[in-house]
Specification:
This protein has 126 residues and is mainly β. The protein is built from no helices and 11 strands. The chain is globular and about 40 Å long.
């Protein structure tokens, strides 16, 4: 089992950047594929990005491709989401999630993860 804690959310102007972090406990982090999922106000949960257990494969939602970068540092049990050129529509609670499988599932299922963090709020002002 793994416990996940997100940080790095906040308020930013459109066009700005934020970097989210997800710190994981447990010795199994490096064997899990990981992902970021978000839920905006009044919206359904939406897949954002995923990364394989060793970081060799990544996958992005079309809405964030070219603006967001997912990465991980298995030595630090931490995953990151670098968000650039933020838009108002990126406003959401961002959740870190872990998949007990090592590889990314395609097409991605935003509800298909086994473990979840508590979420961190990202608010983009227009």
């Amino acid at each position: 089992q793994v416990q996940l804690v997100e940080s790095g959310g906040g308020l930013v102007q459109a066009g700005g950047s934020l970097r989210l972090s997800c710190a994981a406990s447990g010795r199994t982090f490096s064997s899990y594929a990981m992902g970021w999922v978000r839920q905006g106000p009044g919206k359904q949960r939406e897949f954002v990005a995923a990364i394989s257990s060793r970081g060799g494969t990544t996958h992005y939602a079309d809405s964030v491709k070219g603006r967001f970068t997912i990465s991980r540092d298995n030595a630090k049990n931490t995953m990151y989401l670098q968000m650039n050129s933020l838009k108002y529509e990126d406003t959401a609670v961002y959740y870190c999630a872990a998949d007990r499988r090592a590889t990314i599932v395609k097409p991605p299922n935003p509800d298909g993860y086994d473990y979840w963090g508590q979420g961190t709020q990202v608010t983009v002002s227009s």
